[in-house]
């Protein structure tokens, strides 16, 4: 009898323990922590930041996770530029930089920094401090149109980053001369003391002033001596003026960015004769820190679109004859042509 009751007791004890253990096991599966898989964590970070590589081994995974977390901590900070607009002045460089800044993956400097020409001694830390804050993966653009005129600056840019993307914009060379003339005498354009356009050109279509201004090829050649051609985009002011959207598409492709510009970003102003920023575009508020403009109209300031001087017919013909061979050399060098109004007859 005693033996039987002992067996029953043992049976009840074992059953009770089995029930307790089963309950604990179910509870731990339902509510307990699952082991964290570092690869999964990195993968979900990398979905947010597609440029981050998810490595195969654990020590790399740890390093990358550190980098990822670091980037998240310093999400927005000044970074050195990875694209420069290096020339040419009076060829629409400001409109180009401004329009590019509409892209959510581009930030740009408000001012021309002139680091590689004037302020090189200040060092890269200083240069970085001049940059607007950007997020990891965004492109920072600086534009200083005088860089292209200085072979030393081009060499310094190469030393700084030999795979940097460079953008050059050119314009009908005769219109560029007119634009520089108008800019030079903009304080008092009607003053009788101002030289005429022809006098300012030293009375000669072959003057040093003219030749210096119209020889785009010489400067672009210096760039091509150091940088691979696929890292240099050559655009035209005329295309930018007529079809900013088309030019932005070219730039997006060149910079390897997703398509983001839309026709609604730009609006044509009859009064200015240019496309301006569309103040109703959702991207418009984002550019206000990087472009000085008329906030009501979305157009660039009065320094753009000045009246150009008339040119005496014979002098103009002389300019066309002198400059045309320079254009031919340019088009051969860059492998494309621009149809410039002043040279329509010359190119036939
Ligand atoms: N959309 C738009 N808005 C305003 N301006 C435009 C635009 N597209 C091209 N342009 C032309 O840009 C010319 C000025 O060129 P830059 O900005 O390179 O000048 S600067 O070197 O920075 O001073 C300026 O030249 P001028 O007309 O001679 O003033 C403009 O014709």
UniProtKB/TrEMBL annotation:
**What PANTHER family does the database record attribute to this sequence?**
GH20068P, HEPARAN SULFATE SULFOTRANSFERASE
Classification from the root reads: Eukaryota, Metazoa, Spiralia, Lophotrochozoa, Mollusca
Looking at the record, the residues that make up the Sulfotransferase domain are 82-281
Q: What name is this protein filed under?
A: Sulfotransferase domain-containing protein
* Annotated disulfide bonds: 276-299
Annotated residues that bind 3'-phosphoadenylyl sulfate are located at 171, 179, 275, 304-308
Q: Which UniProt keywords apply?
A: Disulfide bond, Glycoprotein, Transferase
In terms of superkingdom, the source organism counts as Eukaryota
Q: In the record, what terms sit under GO molecular function?
A: [heparan sulfate]-glucosamine 3-sulfotransferase activity
Show the Pfam families listed in the entry: Sulfotransfer_1
Which residues does the Swiss-Prot or TrEMBL record annotate as the active site? Answer: 90 (for sulfotransferase activity)
